[in-house]
Design a protein that fits this description.
The chain has about 100 residues and is an alpha+beta fold. The chain has two domains: about 10-55, no CATH class; about 55-100. It has helices spanning about 45-55, 55-75, 85-100; strands at about 10-15, 15-20, 30-40. The protein has a three-stranded antiparallel β-sheet, with helices on one face.
Length: about 100
């Protein structure tokens, strides 16, 4: 599944937040809307949730890079504090969830 490429930006605060794809020309104005977050009352987690959503494309790219690195660790049987097989499985699951 394809998604709108990074960077994504957050506009607004608390109860009325818009997550947009940035314009290619680097403008600070709104780009194409990705998501709208509207909450009632004072939801203190909304700004943090919006930042996490806006980081999704970069997080997916980082996971794809990490899976290659960790897969090599598994193949080379490198010992780590967290077994590399477990880390690899978690990264692969996150990528699968993002791309389904």
């Amino acid at each position: 599944m394809k998604h709108t490429p990074a960077p994504w930006r957050v506009f607004g605060e608390k109860s009325n937040i818009v997550i947009t794809a940035a314009f290619l020309n680097g403008s600070d104005s709104y780009g194409m809307p990705i998501a709208y977050m509207q909450t009632e009352g004072n939801c203190k987690d909304s700004p943090g949730n919006a930042q996490l959503i806006s980081a999704a494309p970069e997080l997916l790219a980082a996971c794809k890079l990490a899976v290659r690195y960790v897969a090599k660790m598994v193949a080379d049987e490198v010992n780590t504090a967290l077994p590399a097989e477990i880390a690899l499985k978690r990264i692969e699951q996150a990528i699968k969830k993002a791309e389904e």
